[in-house]
Q: What sequence folds into this?
């Protein structure tokens, strides 16, 4: 597969060229907007503990989309799990695709490659979007002016340090239009036009994607939106599974050598060592 190389800060990341080139649609008026198909994509690696509840919540919340007469497909990408992740996904009625390389960027891209929707919504396996949040997404789609977006987040249980980090992230996200990987929605044609998530990055791939989407939004006269009226509920489990020292060590390594920290599975072990 040929790979196109582009720069992001001092990290040079390549992106896959497996997506067909699509021409972006001109924004229609809300009144003339046709029925839409939404693909909800959940990357999952050894998520048997949380996946069932997450899928149940997503399916309930999707009523905000199907209630408009829109079609919704649910796709779980089993990212080389060794537990019952795929079994649980199928039992919930989701389509399951398999990605053998343990990397969240590849898992999201594999899910997107199987998707047939006009819009893609990526949701992490430990996150719970509400019907109100998905209704806000629908309004942005209907506006015809939105290319992609995300949402502010809140943790599913109180944690003083993580709460402060989350508050800070939400502020930065809204100001700089940076998408949290736990919830991203994007016009499918735009996602494929820019080539999806970078296969070079094992962490912060959503931030690099944000930069390319913002560039495309400027070129097409559209916008990136961070929804904030109804926050995404996401798990605080990493604060329990990893010590403050482990979090700090990764942060310092990312500051001192961003390329190595973000492009190495071993360095980004907080996402890949299998602790759940």
A:
């Amino acid at each position: 597969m040929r790979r196109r190389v582009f720069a992001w800060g001092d990290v040079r990341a390549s992106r896959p060229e497996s997506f067909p080139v699509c021409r972006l649609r001109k924004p229609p008026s809300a009144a003339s907007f046709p029925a839409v198909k939404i693909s909800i994509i959940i990357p999952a690696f050894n998520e048997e503990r949380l996946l069932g509840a997450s899928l149940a919540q997503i399916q309930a919340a999707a009523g905000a989309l199907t209630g408009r007469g829109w079609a919704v497909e649910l796709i779980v990408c089993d990212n080389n799990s060794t537990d019952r992740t795929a079994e649980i996904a199928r039992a919930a009625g989701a389509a399951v695709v398999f990605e053998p390389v343990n990397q969240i960027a590849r898992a999201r891209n594999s899910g997107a490659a199987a998707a047939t929707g006009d819009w893609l919504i990526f949701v992490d396996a430990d996150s719970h979007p509400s019907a109100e949040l998905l209704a806000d997404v629908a309004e942005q789609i209907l506006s015809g002016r939105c290319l992609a977006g995300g949402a502010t987040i809140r943790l599913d249980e109180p944690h003083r340090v993580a709460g402060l980090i989350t508050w800070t992230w939400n502020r930065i996200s809204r100001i700089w239009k940076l998408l949290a990987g736990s919830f991203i929605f994007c016009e499918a044609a735009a996602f494929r036009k820019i080539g999806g998530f970078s296969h070079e990055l094992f962490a912060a791939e959503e931030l690099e994607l944000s930069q390319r989407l913002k560039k495309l939004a400027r070129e097409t006269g559209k916008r990136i939106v961070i929804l904030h009226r109804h926050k995404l509920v996401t798990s605080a489990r990493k604060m329990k599974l990893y010590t403050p020292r482990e979090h700090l060590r990764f942060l310092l390594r990312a500051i001192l050598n961003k390329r190595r920290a973000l492009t190495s599975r071993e360095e980004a072990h907080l996402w890949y060592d299998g602790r759940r």
Q: What stands out?
A: The radius of gyration is 18 Å. The CA atoms of residues 11 and 259 lie 5 Å apart. The longest strand covers residues 223-234. DSSP finds twelve helices and ten strands in the chain.
